[in-house]
Protein backbone atom coordinates (compact mmCIF):
# COMPACT_ATOMS: atom_id res chain seq x y z
CA UNK A 1 0.00 0.00 0.00
CA UNK A 2 2.98 2.33 0.31
CA UNK A 3 2.75 3.18 -3.40
CA UNK A 4 -0.55 4.88 -2.63
CA UNK A 5 1.31 7.35 -0.34
CA UNK A 6 -1.51 7.59 2.21
CA UNK A 7 -1.64 10.53 4.58
CA UNK A 8 -3.76 10.88 7.70
CA UNK A 9 -6.06 13.63 6.32
CA UNK A 10 -6.82 11.75 3.08
CA UNK A 11 -7.36 8.53 5.05
CA UNK A 12 -9.86 10.34 7.27
CA UNK A 13 -11.49 11.85 4.17
CA UNK A 14 -12.00 8.51 2.42
CA UNK A 15 -13.07 6.76 5.65
CA UNK A 16 -15.78 9.34 6.19
CA UNK A 17 -17.00 8.96 2.60
CA UNK A 18 -17.06 5.18 3.07
CA UNK A 19 -18.85 5.58 6.41
CA UNK A 20 -21.44 7.86 4.77
CA UNK A 21 -22.08 5.35 1.98
CA UNK A 22 -22.38 2.46 4.45
CA UNK A 23 -24.66 4.51 6.68
CA UNK A 24 -26.85 5.48 3.74
CA UNK A 25 -27.09 1.83 2.67
CA UNK A 26 -28.21 0.71 6.13
CA UNK A 27 -30.66 3.62 6.37
CA UNK A 28 -32.04 2.72 2.92
CA UNK A 29 -32.51 -0.92 3.99
CA UNK A 30 -34.22 0.09 7.23
CA UNK A 31 -36.54 2.64 5.65
CA UNK A 32 -36.47 2.95 1.86
CA UNK A 33 -36.17 6.50 0.59
CA UNK A 34 -39.16 8.16 -1.06
CA UNK A 35 -38.49 10.53 -3.92
CA UNK A 36 -39.75 13.99 -3.08
CA UNK A 37 -39.41 17.58 -4.16
CA UNK A 38 -37.90 20.22 -1.88
CA UNK A 39 -36.37 23.57 -2.76
CA UNK A 40 -34.23 22.00 -5.49
CA UNK A 41 -35.74 22.26 -8.98
CA UNK A 42 -35.82 18.45 -9.35
CA UNK A 43 -37.33 15.72 -7.21
CA UNK A 44 -34.61 13.80 -5.42
CA UNK A 45 -34.02 10.77 -3.24
CA UNK A 46 -31.77 10.82 -0.17
CA UNK A 47 -28.85 9.48 -2.21
CA UNK A 48 -29.28 12.22 -4.84
CA UNK A 49 -29.22 14.86 -2.13
CA UNK A 50 -26.08 13.38 -0.56
CA UNK A 51 -24.38 13.37 -3.96
CA UNK A 52 -25.41 16.96 -4.68
CA UNK A 53 -24.17 18.13 -1.29
CA UNK A 54 -20.83 16.29 -1.64
CA UNK A 55 -20.28 17.70 -5.12
CA UNK A 56 -21.13 21.22 -4.03
CA UNK A 57 -18.92 20.74 -0.94
CA UNK A 58 -16.02 20.07 -3.30
CA UNK A 59 -16.66 23.33 -5.12
CA UNK A 60 -17.12 25.24 -1.84
CA UNK A 61 -13.70 23.99 -0.74
CA UNK A 62 -12.08 24.84 -4.06
CA UNK A 63 -13.57 28.33 -4.01
CA UNK A 64 -12.46 29.07 -0.47
CA UNK A 65 -8.97 27.58 -0.90
CA UNK A 66 -8.34 29.13 -4.27
CA UNK A 67 -9.84 32.56 -4.10
CA UNK A 68 -10.00 33.62 -0.43
CA UNK A 69 -7.54 33.52 2.44
CA UNK A 70 -10.09 31.93 4.78
CA UNK A 71 -9.24 28.72 6.62
CA UNK A 72 -10.22 25.39 5.12
CA UNK A 73 -12.19 24.67 8.32
CA UNK A 74 -14.63 27.43 7.37
CA UNK A 75 -15.17 25.63 4.06
CA UNK A 76 -15.73 22.39 5.93
CA UNK A 77 -18.20 24.00 8.33
CA UNK A 78 -20.07 25.66 5.46
CA UNK A 79 -20.26 22.35 3.61
CA UNK A 80 -21.54 20.53 6.69
CA UNK A 81 -24.29 23.12 7.19
CA UNK A 82 -25.15 22.94 3.47
CA UNK A 83 -25.28 19.14 3.67
CA UNK A 84 -27.72 19.24 6.58
CA UNK A 85 -29.91 21.88 4.90
CA UNK A 86 -29.95 19.92 1.65
CA UNK A 87 -30.69 16.59 3.31
CA UNK A 88 -33.56 18.07 5.29
CA UNK A 89 -35.20 20.55 2.89
CA UNK A 90 -33.59 19.95 -0.52
CA UNK B 1 -51.98 -0.54 -6.00
CA UNK B 2 -48.28 -0.66 -5.32
CA UNK B 3 -47.85 -4.04 -3.65
CA UNK B 4 -45.10 -5.33 -5.92
CA UNK B 5 -42.35 -7.21 -4.12
CA UNK B 6 -39.02 -5.64 -4.88
CA UNK B 7 -36.10 -8.03 -5.00
CA UNK B 8 -32.79 -6.30 -5.39
CA UNK B 9 -30.63 -9.40 -5.35
CA UNK B 10 -29.92 -8.98 -9.07
CA UNK B 11 -27.61 -6.15 -8.06
CA UNK B 12 -25.18 -8.80 -6.81
CA UNK B 13 -24.45 -9.57 -10.47
CA UNK B 14 -22.85 -6.13 -10.69
CA UNK B 15 -20.17 -7.11 -8.12
CA UNK B 16 -17.52 -8.30 -10.63
CA UNK B 17 -17.86 -5.01 -12.47
CA UNK B 18 -17.48 -3.17 -9.19
CA UNK B 19 -14.22 -5.00 -8.46
CA UNK B 20 -12.98 -4.12 -11.94
CA UNK B 21 -13.90 -0.47 -11.51
CA UNK B 22 -12.25 -0.44 -8.09
CA UNK B 23 -8.94 -1.44 -9.62
CA UNK B 24 -9.17 0.63 -12.79
CA UNK B 25 -10.73 3.79 -11.38
CA UNK B 26 -11.37 4.07 -7.65
CA UNK B 27 -7.95 3.02 -6.32
CA UNK B 28 -6.04 5.14 -8.88
CA UNK B 29 -8.31 8.08 -8.09
CA UNK B 30 -7.62 7.68 -4.35
CA UNK B 31 -3.90 7.67 -5.14
CA UNK B 32 -4.29 10.87 -7.13
CA UNK B 33 -6.02 12.45 -4.13
CA UNK B 34 -3.13 11.32 -1.91
CA UNK B 35 -0.57 12.77 -4.31
CA UNK B 36 -2.44 16.06 -4.51
CA UNK B 37 -1.75 16.93 -0.87
CA UNK B 38 1.93 15.98 -0.87
CA UNK B 39 5.21 16.70 -2.56
CA UNK B 40 6.33 13.18 -3.44
CA UNK B 41 10.03 13.12 -4.25
CA UNK B 42 10.51 9.37 -4.26
CA UNK B 43 9.74 6.25 -2.25
CA UNK B 44 9.57 7.18 1.44
CA UNK B 45 10.38 10.80 0.67
CA UNK B 46 7.26 12.91 0.67
CA UNK B 47 6.22 16.11 2.39
CA UNK B 48 2.70 17.04 3.34
CA UNK B 49 1.72 20.25 1.58
CA UNK B 50 -1.98 20.42 2.42
CA UNK B 51 -3.98 22.65 0.12
CA UNK B 52 -0.99 24.45 -1.40
CA UNK B 53 -1.12 22.71 -4.81
CA UNK B 54 -4.83 23.43 -5.16
CA UNK B 55 -4.26 27.10 -4.40
CA UNK B 56 -1.40 27.28 -6.91
CA UNK B 57 -3.34 25.50 -9.65
CA UNK B 58 -6.52 27.56 -9.21
CA UNK B 59 -4.52 30.79 -9.45
CA UNK B 60 -2.25 29.71 -12.30
CA UNK B 61 -2.94 32.17 -15.12
CA UNK B 62 -1.74 29.76 -17.84
CA UNK B 63 -4.19 27.12 -16.63
CA UNK B 64 -7.01 29.64 -16.35
CA UNK B 65 -6.34 30.66 -19.95
CA UNK B 66 -6.30 27.00 -21.05
CA UNK B 67 -9.61 26.47 -19.23
CA UNK B 68 -11.12 29.46 -21.03
CA UNK B 69 -9.87 28.17 -24.39
CA UNK B 70 -11.28 24.74 -23.61
CA UNK B 71 -14.77 26.11 -22.86
CA UNK B 72 -14.65 28.39 -25.92
CA UNK B 73 -13.64 25.45 -28.11
CA UNK B 74 -16.46 23.24 -26.77
CA UNK B 75 -19.06 25.98 -27.27
CA UNK B 76 -17.90 26.76 -30.81
CA UNK B 77 -17.92 23.16 -31.99
CA UNK B 78 -21.33 22.55 -30.37
CA UNK B 79 -22.75 25.64 -32.07
CA UNK B 80 -21.51 24.35 -35.43
CA UNK B 81 -21.90 20.58 -35.15
CA UNK B 82 -25.40 20.33 -33.70
CA UNK B 83 -27.23 22.45 -36.34
CA UNK B 84 -25.04 21.02 -39.09
CA UNK B 85 -25.68 17.46 -37.91
CA UNK B 86 -29.45 18.05 -37.88
CA UNK B 87 -29.25 19.56 -41.35
CA UNK B 88 -27.29 16.62 -42.75
CA UNK B 89 -29.67 14.13 -41.15
CA UNK B 90 -32.64 15.94 -42.73
CA UNK B 91 -31.27 15.74 -46.29
CA UNK B 92 -29.94 12.18 -46.02
CA UNK B 93 -31.81 9.67 -48.25
CA UNK B 94 -34.38 7.68 -46.31
CA UNK B 95 -34.29 4.34 -48.15
CA UNK B 96 -32.75 2.29 -50.92
CA UNK B 97 -29.10 1.77 -51.73
CA UNK B 98 -28.48 5.52 -51.53
CA UNK B 99 -29.28 5.48 -47.80
CA UNK B 100 -26.69 2.75 -47.13
CA UNK B 101 -24.09 4.42 -49.33
CA UNK B 102 -24.51 7.80 -47.65
CA UNK B 103 -24.41 6.20 -44.20
CA UNK B 104 -21.11 4.49 -44.97
CA UNK B 105 -19.58 7.63 -46.48
CA UNK B 106 -20.66 9.68 -43.49
CA UNK B 107 -19.32 7.17 -40.97
CA UNK B 108 -15.83 7.04 -42.45
CA UNK B 109 -14.30 9.92 -40.44
CA UNK B 110 -15.53 8.29 -37.22
CA UNK B 111 -13.44 5.19 -37.93
CA UNK B 112 -10.12 7.03 -38.07
CA UNK B 113 -8.00 7.05 -34.89
CA UNK B 114 -7.58 10.46 -33.32
CA UNK B 115 -3.86 10.86 -33.74
CA UNK B 116 -4.20 9.81 -37.39
CA UNK B 117 -6.84 12.52 -37.85
CA UNK B 118 -4.27 14.98 -36.51
CA UNK B 119 -1.62 13.69 -38.93
CA UNK B 120 -4.00 13.78 -41.90
CA UNK B 121 -4.84 17.40 -41.24
CA UNK B 122 -1.24 18.28 -40.48
CA UNK B 123 -0.25 17.13 -43.96
CA UNK B 124 -3.45 18.53 -45.54
CA UNK B 125 -2.68 22.03 -44.23
CA UNK B 126 1.02 22.14 -45.10
CA UNK B 127 1.90 24.96 -47.47
CA UNK B 128 4.28 22.97 -49.65
CA UNK B 129 2.60 19.59 -50.14
CA UNK B 130 -0.84 19.84 -48.47
CA UNK B 131 -3.83 20.33 -50.73
CA UNK B 132 -5.58 22.85 -48.47
CA UNK B 133 -2.47 24.73 -47.39
CA UNK B 134 -1.09 24.90 -50.92
CA UNK B 135 -4.48 25.78 -52.42
CA UNK B 136 -5.10 28.64 -49.99
CA UNK B 137 -1.61 29.96 -50.56
CA UNK B 138 -2.10 29.88 -54.34
CA UNK B 139 -5.31 31.87 -53.84
CA UNK B 140 -3.20 34.52 -52.17
CA UNK B 141 -4.37 33.86 -48.61
CA UNK B 142 -1.60 34.03 -46.03
CA UNK B 143 -2.51 30.76 -44.34
CA UNK B 144 -0.07 29.29 -41.82
CA UNK B 145 -1.15 27.29 -38.78
CA UNK B 146 2.28 27.39 -37.20
CA UNK B 147 2.37 31.17 -37.26
CA UNK B 148 -1.19 32.57 -37.06
CA UNK B 149 -3.28 31.70 -34.02
CA UNK B 150 -6.49 32.40 -35.96
CA UNK B 151 -5.56 29.93 -38.69
CA UNK B 152 -4.66 27.31 -36.09
CA UNK B 153 -8.01 27.74 -34.35
CA UNK B 154 -9.98 27.66 -37.58
CA UNK B 155 -8.18 24.49 -38.65
CA UNK B 156 -8.71 22.69 -35.35
CA UNK B 157 -12.41 23.58 -35.41
CA UNK B 158 -12.71 22.50 -39.04
CA UNK B 159 -10.93 19.25 -38.19
CA UNK B 160 -13.24 18.54 -35.26
CA UNK B 161 -16.32 19.38 -37.33
CA UNK B 162 -15.11 17.03 -40.07
CA UNK B 163 -14.36 14.29 -37.55
CA UNK B 164 -17.42 14.45 -35.31
CA UNK B 165 -20.39 16.02 -37.12
CA UNK B 166 -21.10 12.54 -38.58
CA UNK B 167 -21.82 11.28 -35.07
CA UNK B 168 -24.41 14.02 -34.51
CA UNK B 169 -25.84 13.39 -37.98
CA UNK B 170 -26.16 9.65 -37.36
CA UNK B 171 -27.84 10.17 -33.98
CA UNK B 172 -30.30 12.62 -35.52
CA UNK B 173 -30.86 10.32 -38.48
CA UNK B 174 -31.83 7.46 -36.17
CA UNK B 175 -34.07 9.85 -34.23
CA UNK B 176 -35.77 10.97 -37.46
CA UNK B 177 -36.27 7.40 -38.66
CA UNK B 178 -38.18 6.58 -35.47
CA UNK B 179 -40.92 9.14 -36.19
CA UNK B 180 -44.02 7.26 -37.41
CA UNK B 181 -45.23 8.07 -40.93
CA UNK B 182 -48.66 8.97 -39.53
CA UNK B 183 -47.25 12.25 -38.16
CA UNK B 184 -46.16 13.31 -41.64
CA UNK B 185 -49.50 12.23 -43.13
CA UNK B 186 -51.33 14.35 -40.56
CA UNK B 187 -49.03 17.27 -41.38
CA UNK B 188 -49.75 16.86 -45.11
CA UNK B 189 -53.49 16.87 -44.45
CA UNK B 190 -53.03 20.14 -42.55
CA UNK B 191 -50.89 21.42 -45.44
CA UNK B 192 -48.15 22.20 -42.95
CA UNK B 193 -45.09 23.92 -44.35
CA UNK B 194 -41.69 22.23 -44.27
CA UNK B 195 -40.64 24.56 -41.46
CA UNK B 196 -43.75 23.73 -39.42
CA UNK B 197 -43.08 20.01 -39.86
CA UNK B 198 -39.54 20.54 -38.65
CA UNK B 199 -40.47 22.83 -35.78
CA UNK B 200 -43.47 20.92 -34.40
CA UNK B 201 -42.81 17.29 -35.37
CA UNK B 202 -39.16 16.59 -36.08
CA UNK B 203 -37.45 18.84 -33.55
CA UNK B 204 -39.57 17.76 -30.53
CA UNK B 205 -39.03 14.11 -31.47
CA UNK B 206 -35.31 14.74 -31.71
CA UNK B 207 -34.95 16.28 -28.24
CA UNK B 208 -33.73 13.10 -26.56
CA UNK B 209 -31.10 12.21 -29.15
CA UNK B 210 -29.98 15.84 -29.23
CA UNK B 211 -29.37 15.86 -25.47
CA UNK B 212 -27.25 12.74 -25.88
CA UNK B 213 -25.43 14.28 -28.85
CA UNK B 214 -24.71 17.47 -26.93
CA UNK B 215 -23.51 15.48 -23.91
CA UNK B 216 -21.20 13.25 -25.95
CA UNK B 217 -19.80 16.09 -28.01
CA UNK B 218 -19.31 18.33 -24.99
CA UNK B 219 -17.54 15.69 -22.92
CA UNK B 220 -15.37 14.67 -25.78
CA UNK B 221 -14.38 18.14 -26.92
CA UNK B 222 -13.71 19.09 -23.31
CA UNK B 223 -11.15 16.29 -23.09
CA UNK B 224 -9.70 16.64 -26.61
CA UNK B 225 -6.01 15.79 -26.71
CA UNK B 226 -4.51 13.85 -29.61
CA UNK B 227 -5.81 15.88 -32.55
CA UNK B 228 -4.60 19.38 -31.58
CA UNK B 229 -1.46 17.87 -30.08
CA UNK B 230 -0.49 16.32 -33.40
CA UNK B 231 -1.78 19.18 -35.56
CA UNK B 232 -0.41 22.26 -33.78
CA UNK B 233 1.34 20.96 -30.66
CA UNK B 234 -0.58 23.62 -28.74
CA UNK B 235 0.92 26.46 -30.75
CA UNK B 236 1.54 29.01 -32.06
CA UNK B 237 2.74 30.04 -28.60
CA UNK B 238 0.09 28.59 -26.35
CA UNK B 239 -2.90 29.72 -28.41
CA UNK B 240 -4.28 26.20 -28.92
CA UNK B 241 -3.03 24.58 -25.71
CA UNK B 242 -6.03 22.91 -24.10
CA UNK B 243 -6.33 21.60 -20.55
CA UNK B 244 -5.37 18.01 -21.35
CA UNK B 245 -2.17 19.13 -22.95
CA UNK B 246 -1.24 21.39 -20.04
CA UNK B 247 -1.90 18.44 -17.76
CA UNK B 248 0.20 16.01 -19.80
CA UNK B 249 3.09 18.48 -19.96
CA UNK B 250 2.94 19.01 -16.22
CA UNK B 251 2.57 15.38 -15.19
CA UNK B 252 4.65 13.52 -17.76
CA UNK B 253 6.94 16.22 -19.13
CA UNK B 254 7.93 17.90 -15.89
CA UNK B 255 7.05 15.10 -13.43
CA UNK B 256 5.30 17.63 -11.15
CA UNK B 257 3.08 14.94 -9.70
CA UNK B 258 1.63 16.91 -6.77
CA UNK B 259 0.40 19.94 -8.75
CA UNK B 260 -0.82 17.82 -11.64
CA UNK B 261 -2.73 15.59 -9.22
CA UNK B 262 -4.43 18.64 -7.74
CA UNK B 263 -5.15 19.89 -11.24
CA UNK B 264 -6.56 16.49 -12.30
CA UNK B 265 -8.97 16.54 -9.37
CA UNK B 266 -10.22 20.02 -10.29
CA UNK B 267 -10.61 18.92 -13.93
CA UNK B 268 -12.42 15.75 -12.79
CA UNK B 269 -14.80 17.74 -10.60
CA UNK B 270 -15.72 20.08 -13.46
CA UNK B 271 -16.40 17.10 -15.76
CA UNK B 272 -18.36 15.34 -13.01
CA UNK B 273 -20.51 18.43 -12.50
CA UNK B 274 -21.25 18.85 -16.20
CA UNK B 275 -21.99 15.13 -16.71
CA UNK B 276 -24.30 15.10 -13.72
CA UNK B 277 -26.23 18.13 -14.96
CA UNK B 278 -26.64 16.54 -18.40
CA UNK B 279 -27.54 13.16 -16.95
CA UNK B 280 -30.19 14.69 -14.68
CA UNK B 281 -31.59 16.61 -17.64
CA UNK B 282 -31.83 13.47 -19.77
CA UNK B 283 -33.49 11.48 -17.00
CA UNK B 284 -35.89 14.34 -16.40
CA UNK B 285 -36.88 14.58 -20.03
CA UNK B 286 -37.63 10.87 -20.08
CA UNK B 287 -39.56 11.03 -16.84
CA UNK B 288 -41.69 13.89 -18.16
CA UNK B 289 -42.30 11.96 -21.34
CA UNK B 290 -43.31 8.82 -19.40
CA UNK B 291 -45.71 10.73 -17.19
CA UNK B 292 -47.27 12.30 -20.29
CA UNK B 293 -47.55 8.89 -21.94
CA UNK B 294 -49.13 7.38 -18.80
CA UNK B 295 -51.66 10.16 -18.35
Automatic annotation (TrEMBL), chain A:
The chain crosses the membrane at residues 6-29, 72-89. Keywords: Membrane, Transmembrane, Transmembrane helix. It comes from the Bacteria. InterPro entries: DUF2160_TM. This is DUF2160 domain-containing protein.
Automatic annotation (TrEMBL), chain B:
It is found in: Cell membrane. GO terms for cellular component: plasma membrane. It holds the Pfam family BPD_transp_1. It is a multi-pass membrane protein. Keywords: Membrane, Transmembrane, Transmembrane helix, Transport. It comes from the Bacteria. SUPFAM superfamilies: MetI-like (SSF161098). InterPro entries: MetI-like, MetI-like_sf, Sugar_ABC_transporter. Residues 67-278 form the ABC transmembrane type-1 domain. The chain crosses the membrane at residues 12-33, 71-91, 103-124, 152-176, 197-219, 260-279. GO terms for biological process: transmembrane transport. Belongs to the binding-protein-dependent transport system permease family. This is Sugar ABC transporter permease. It comes from Vreelandella andesensis.
Amino acid sequence: MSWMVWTLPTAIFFSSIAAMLTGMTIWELRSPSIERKGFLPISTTRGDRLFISLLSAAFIHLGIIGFTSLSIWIALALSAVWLLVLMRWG
Amino acid sequence: MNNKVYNNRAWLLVLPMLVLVAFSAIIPLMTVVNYSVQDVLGPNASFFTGTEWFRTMLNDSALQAAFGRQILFSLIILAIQIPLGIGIALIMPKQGWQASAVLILITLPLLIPWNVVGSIWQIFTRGDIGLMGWGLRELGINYNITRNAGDAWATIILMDVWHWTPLVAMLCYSGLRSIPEAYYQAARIDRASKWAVFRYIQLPKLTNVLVIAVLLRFMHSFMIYAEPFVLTGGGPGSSTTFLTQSLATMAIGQQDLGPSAAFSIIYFLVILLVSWVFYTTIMHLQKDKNSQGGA
